Amino acid sequence: MKRSVSLKVQLPSVVFVSEVVFLALYAVSVTYSDDADAARQDNTTEPMTNSLYKDYPFFTDVQVMIFIGFGCLLAFLRLYGYGGMAFNFLVAAFAIQWAILVQGYFQFYSDGKIRLGVINLLSAEFACAVVLISFGAVLGKTSPVQLLVMTLLEVPVFAVTEWVVLKYLKINDAGGSILVHLFACYFGLGVTFVLYRPSLNNGHPKEATGYHSDIFSLMGTLFLWVFWPSFNSAMTFKGDDQHRAILHTFIALSSSTLTAFALSAMLSKNGRLTMADIQNVTLAGGVTVGASVDMMISPAAAYGLGVAGCIACMLGYRYLTPFLARHCRIQDQCGIHNLHGLTGLISCLAGICAILMASEETYGPSLYQTFAHRAPVEEDPKHLKLQQLIPGLQPGLGRTAHEQALYQVAAMFGTIGVAAVGGIITGLVLKLPFLAAPSDELCFDDKPYFNVPSDYDNMAGLEAPSGATLDNKV
Amino acid sequence: MKRSVSLKVQLPSVVFVSEVVFLALYAVSVTYSDDADAARQDNTTEPMTNSLYKDYPFFTDVQVMIFIGFGCLLAFLRLYGYGGMAFNFLVAAFAIQWAILVQGYFQFYSDGKIRLGVINLLSAEFACAVVLISFGAVLGKTSPVQLLVMTLLEVPVFAVTEWVVLKYLKINDAGGSILVHLFACYFGLGVTFVLYRPSLNNGHPKEATGYHSDIFSLMGTLFLWVFWPSFNSAMTFKGDDQHRAILHTFIALSSSTLTAFALSAMLSKNGRLTMADIQNVTLAGGVTVGASVDMMISPAAAYGLGVAGCIACMLGYRYLTPFLARHCRIQDQCGIHNLHGLTGLISCLAGICAILMASEETYGPSLYQTFAHRAPVEEDPKHLKLQQLIPGLQPGLGRTAHEQALYQVAAMFGTIGVAAVGGIITGLVLKLPFLAAPSDELCFDDKPYFNVPSDYDNMAGLEAPSGATLDNKV
Amino acid sequence: MKRSVSLKVQLPSVVFVSEVVFLALYAVSVTYSDDADAARQDNTTEPMTNSLYKDYPFFTDVQVMIFIGFGCLLAFLRLYGYGGMAFNFLVAAFAIQWAILVQGYFQFYSDGKIRLGVINLLSAEFACAVVLISFGAVLGKTSPVQLLVMTLLEVPVFAVTEWVVLKYLKINDAGGSILVHLFACYFGLGVTFVLYRPSLNNGHPKEATGYHSDIFSLMGTLFLWVFWPSFNSAMTFKGDDQHRAILHTFIALSSSTLTAFALSAMLSKNGRLTMADIQNVTLAGGVTVGASVDMMISPAAAYGLGVAGCIACMLGYRYLTPFLARHCRIQDQCGIHNLHGLTGLISCLAGICAILMASEETYGPSLYQTFAHRAPVEEDPKHLKLQQLIPGLQPGLGRTAHEQALYQVAAMFGTIGVAAVGGIITGLVLKLPFLAAPSDELCFDDKPYFNVPSDYDNMAGLEAPSGATLDNKV
């Protein structure tokens, strides 16, 4: 029996039901944060100190990454450019709305209301990035209805994990290497494991890039590259912490870019560069430096992390991804395990090393700000002393470096476990009928889901390798 | 008699005459505003409090929208991509220069000089957006010479309307729903009404999108989407007002995006998505929330406005645009009446409701800042009392909510009327000979106005539906 | 003997050796600047006054210009889009790393260490822009290995020149017209002079644009256009100086855009626009206004400079570039001599005029801030008096306007001379074998350096003029 891929009923159903629920939840439980509430302004309020002006520049940068960077990057398939960009748009808009609510209940809730400000939107964009990374594992093999259902499930699992890790484990992870990248990666792998399609392992006639699709995709890479320092530093402390986060991210991206070009030429048979490497592996440094991005790791260490992450990522693309597809039922379409998984693991290790080596000698009293949980507890006389050096220093938990490192390890394994299990369960849900999943031969194809212009068939024809199997009317 | 479409004489004539006039006017009447004038700096000036730093971030965001967002969005026609992007570039540069002068005389004039700062440029970009929206109605059917003449006429009509509305009617319209969107829409419809081309109602062989053109256009949409919060909030009060404007715009865009995808699938025969919907209807929320964007309407209301505007916009595209073209001589090429007109009207209504419901209870004393004209007059003792709560509160007109609402209604109808009449007169001027207007068969075609590369003919051939009527040499 | 164009050995060799050296130098000599160093923060540090927040917005704008603006602009060749964008990416990442080190030793060195902050990155991006402009002269005719070698040589020559000019000649050149544009231009011309390929003067079958490549390239132009005010103002004094720099750049770009459209139509045989003009000549105003961008030249002068630079640039493209190629062995692929050389010279002259006309009447005491070297020497009693008017005014050299003008002239000729000689020597180095230089017939072709998708051959076929010489299998 041929399943329908028509979105006519399913997509509106999922969207309108969600919208009614979202609207009801917004009406009942979302109000303005103090900085956005007219009634909270008085004669002591100075408009230009509104938190808006600290958060909004980073928010717009991350917006460009989410909607344009990811969108273009995912448009690399010649016949699935609409799908890559438009489903990214749909999923991102949906994920952010949903994350505002779910994260709101966990992180921005007081007096029975979610307090909304630009910081909530920024936080929701991180949740959105998680979903979009996972999307990379199943690109071209899932319907937009399935993607919305995946978003509905992934956002709460992520938000709970995030809340537990931040509230109870209290880790250092400014760039989101553990929470964003590792979670997203293993969740996506879980989903694609369940949605395994054996026939795709033999290659698919439409799974091909095109000359212009590759250029669109590289533009996406460049937007991600340019604004990645803003992503990695958006959640750090203001001041020197944020300054370092920007420096380290930039340096690591630079060194991973150089390395990616070199390895791409070196590992190809004919000494030519592969665009997929330039589109993806160049970004490895941004992830690898994430967990230690605000620490005093030194610029040279950031440089080294960029190189190391890039090597791991490149070897992953060359050897691990094909292996996982053939032997482990894990078909990782965009290779998220290389760009987010392997690099995320290296980043965690580097973060742990940086935590173990952090000392008052290097950081001065700021040590207890960057590593907030190592700050002395409130009763500790050292806390008072430190407060004279850093006014406004919050009391901490008095953790030692070793204790903090152990919590990082716990967070890493916990996150991976929850993500993988969550991904597998989500994959099972996505196998439900009526979600307009494409059959194998309709994968990587915009035609099932879009009204395509007349030049589409011609483009499809161009691609057909020796004795076209696609009908085209040129 | 075949009219020439050559730009060889006409375009340089219009440009050079304008440039001489502009240069003379700049020389005679434009000088620096205080914040840009070296001689006005003294030992009390703090460089970082220069107004530049408040305005410039919003200015660059709007620049991206105008030049890249609009430019790419208008490149959706397969054979008119150069025209869409390059004429947008030309018109935008021209409109801003002209608007700096015209708005300067009305809004930034003192001691016989226009005082120039980044705020003037930002203001001129709003006038520019007006022209570009109107351009959407006649895209592909007008020569660049006609577009420059249209700009020459539209900018002053707009600037006068803006000045009357802001100075005499004194309305609330932070996002420009009335002044920008309604004006631009009805002006454009007036122009296209006069330039009616009956033969185009039967379809035009070149009026087709292309696979890559649609991707370029969607990139334009995404740039508009990402920076729309900056557009809607650029002219609000700093602080909580701007904060709310950003939140509301983002929420409304998100909900209209979701709705647009759902409706696009629902209203298509085969349950497939239409790229034109994703490129345009997703943006409806940004306009719809405009007139009330800085008010305490609640996040849920912003959500609802996004959905409502999107529904109106989508139904407009499906049913109203074809109706207007067939029965009212209004050929609205990009459907600006849907994206800017219908949504603008809803926005006005929502703004009026928000004004009527605004109370001191919700806003606190800030009520008289957001609704500046409801502030008590200078002599009123209440003014003094309020100034203690909000230092620097300007005296207002002591309007009641109902009075303010009536002024909004007057502004709405007045703007629509002036715009439509201005558009019709402009249309008549554009019918003058010697403006290089394209004949019907040269519409939607880059070839009359650009030296095209050799692959153009091939692309043109691809498009020809069964039995090509275009000459191509493949 | 056919030389190999394989990158398999050469590219990794150059990259890995450089990376090892860079990493060693970073480890040995790069540390954090005060604003990025946790140990330098104390109870008097206010996080939001960190220099990060002054520099980062301009840094991201310039990043977009470098990686996306230049990248897309250079993708205008139909069969060399990958090369344009990806080599731009590679060279930019490499140049910035290298410039951080080299400029660091000259400009940011204290106590035996380079002090790293975002300002260093911004400064390195200017060095990077220099390399990318020079790249324009040899686009499509050099291998990525050659480009890296060129970068290795150009960055130190530039950094030394910059240091000498800024430290000893002490000139005014906020927009980098002398240091960035003239240096880059004459260096690039020097390189291409040595790499002269006589056969290319007869045209090359692959040296053709494509319809979509031209659109990508125009997008690049628009990104450069939009953020050019940030580039020209990134290095000025904060406050009114930066405000003026932004205004002037915007005005000059606007007027040069209008002029470029008019001239493009006027100078073409058939009255049609040429995309190459719209992509390049529109930007002339940004360069032309550079040397006087922060001075009180008046908005009208900025307007006039935009027009003048545009005319020179356009005439250069039409008449000078072909002349140089035929008669002077200078094959300037992207016409950098027009967009950066001629305009740079006009800019210098304008800067000198502005310096000669600058008076205390126009500038007030700020005169001695904008023209820092005209400030009185420390012992001069006038210095004390001025410090009361402008607290924090640095003592200067007591130069007169004429003296300053002479230094500008010296800097201009000195820079041109050093750049040209440096470029010629670099060109000789690039002729070394084993740098994977493409043969004449492999110029302007992505195939030697990239694994291209299957539609590439088809695109190549489309282009072949009457009796294709390229093998294609359509």
Question: What is the count of distinct domains of chain A?
Answer: 1
End-to-end CA span of chain A = 31 Å
Summed up, the helix count of chain A is 17
Strand content of chain A: under 5%
**Average pLDDT, all residues of chain A:** 94
| Multimer state | homotrimer
Q: Count interface residues per chain for the largest interface.
A: A-C, 76 and 72 residues
- Rg of Cα set of chain A: 23 Å
Q: Would you write up a description of this structure?
A:
3 copies of one chain form a homotrimer. With 474 residues, chain A is mostly helical. Chain A has helices spanning 10-29, 52-73, 81-107, 118-137, 144-169, 177-194, 211-233, 240-267, 275-280, 284-288, 299-327, 336-357, 360-363, 367-370, 381-389, 401-430, 455-463; strands at 30-32, 109-110, 113-116. Helix content of chain A is 64%, strand content 2%. In chain A, strands 1-3-2 form a 3-stranded mixed sheet. The radius of gyration of chain A is 23 Å and the shape is globular. In chain A, α11 runs antiparallel to α12. The two termini of chain A are 31 Å apart. The first copy, chain A, has one domain (10-33, 49-357, 400-444): Ammonium transporter AmtB like domains (Ammonium transporter fold, Orthogonal Bundle), CATH 1.10.3430.10. Chains A and B meet through α1, β1, α2, α3 and α17 of A and α2, α7, α8, α11 and α13 of B.
